[in-house]
């Protein structure tokens, strides 16, 4: 819960005093990443094997460490929302639910990985991006388009892979302390230990966030810790251990999902929720092994355990008697996943088989076993308990061919065998060709994805007396079929990259929800068909005379093609666009980063988008009219200055300090009044300032 900033600063000073003598004896810091990796970064997500981005046929965007340092995100979601083709909306201030959509698809159609370990929530619902600490990461990759052939059910529209900032073998030990304070009585503290030894590397972090928010009962509190350890017992083997705990509490100013935080509605809503909150604890433990017994074979098994404990609690209060639908309510659930993934890579070079045109071939064969469990206890006007589990066994195949170092061909197929529901078969093909004379890459991809129904879709049951809700155990997977074509132009020694992509998606068997229910006696049914298409344009000019420029512009058209005669509920109405998808949006950032100083101005504009007004819930009505959420433009500014860098002070040195950085981040510079989700005010102008010490 909230703590005094003085106590937090005292703790940082004591730790600094204790650690400076030891840190002063540490080795010099490891060198920066090679310049070619900055200009043509590697992707480990597109094919599950490292490949330069310039050689893959899929649409992939790599967020490198420099983008984190230039933009100073409070949470990693602040950075991801600037990706091409990405829609992210957050329902209020910091800590409120943040949903990510790839190319207009559903917000639970993307798989989320942490350095290859799956962290998508086991219940099958949308991943909440609001709680990712940036100190864990050195970057991320966003892979757009269906990837179920490689990654399974949760990757129907793409993959987000968050990359850990683990130390490398031989990297000097460093210890980092950070503290920031800012608007809405916000305080942040970060501890980070990173380094390596001859045969391994490590990362350990701990952080705390306290924020009171803008309104009464609008606070957010997070405590997170992570440990990663890499060990290389031989040049042909790597062992990784990973453990994390993330506990966060978000107070719910309004439990009705309506407009209680929005003063602009007429009449203003004054019956705010005073005591509702949600509390989540995420734990993940993973072990992976990479073995290369011969030059042509690699085996990379991994096992992981993930558990999420989630509590929503709305204790009795004075408002309960005045609102027919919202009264005291409690929902407590535990979600777990046991996962074993076992890919085998077979490598062949053309020279080994006498085929000079073949640069390389990688064949991946894999087996995956996944068990998910879901327990939920709901207490309201009546009590219900749900306890379910399900199993998926999958076989997958993936082939990569690179011919004459210019033509890349990839293809994959996956079969998912489910113990509950209908099995899935998904596939994917992609190709790219590099025109060496002009350094131009043309690319294209076609594929299918599947999204298995969530536990709530299948089994949810709630009886509140006046309202009974039932899941549908007969649901089948939602489907996405897509194709895309694009071109990437590299200029100025690849310091300038221009990209353009056109895509089309067909989404079928989308699960519709209706309060009134369907003829089968449930509230969920595979009803809707949706078509989406769009264009993505992007530009990246990297490190030219101390400047970096990044920008993207996106166009998206969505339409519900079939709702079975109005059976699609209020979310899917034939001839209408999808909710919370703008027709266009763009973002851009300009950074100036000479030796010690970094300044970044970020701009984002999002067009008008349809949404729903939930205020009728206050009167007990379940009819929610469509509204147009107005467009908005937001500007952010990030400033950082290294008082000490590489032990060279701009001012009088502190013993043992390798780097001392002052930071300032100002969000929503123009104090724009807007909602990302209708009825939930986005924060006005707000700031964070602090310092970061590295020993």
What do these coordinates show?
- It is a single chain.
- The protein is mainly beta.
- It has one domain: Maltoporin, Chain A, CATH 2.40.170.
- Helix content is 7%, strand content 54%.
- The chain has seven helices and 39 strands.
- The strands form seven sheets. It has a 24-stranded antiparallel beta sheet that branches. It has a five-stranded mixed beta sheet with strand order 3-8-9-6-7. Strands 1-2 form a two-stranded antiparallel ribbon.
- It starts with a helix and ends with a strand.
Short description:
The protein has 695 residues and is mainly beta.
CATH-defined fold name: Maltoporin, Chain A
Shape: globular
CATH class assignment:
Mainly Beta
Q: What is the arithmetic mean of pLDDT?
A: 88
Rg: 25 Å
How far the N terminus sits from the C terminus, by CA atoms, comes to: 30 Å
Q: What would CATH call the homologous superfamily?
A: TonB-dependent receptor, beta-barrel domain
Number of separate strands = 39
Strand percent estimate: over 45%
The proportion of residues forming helix, as a percent range, comes to under 10%
SS-based structural class?
Answer: mainly beta
Number of H- or I-type helical stretches? 7
Q: How many domains comprise the coordinates?
A: 1
Q: What does the main sheet amount to?
A: 24 strands, antiparallel
Low-confidence stretches: 1-34, 255-271
Just name the CATH architecture.
Beta Barrel
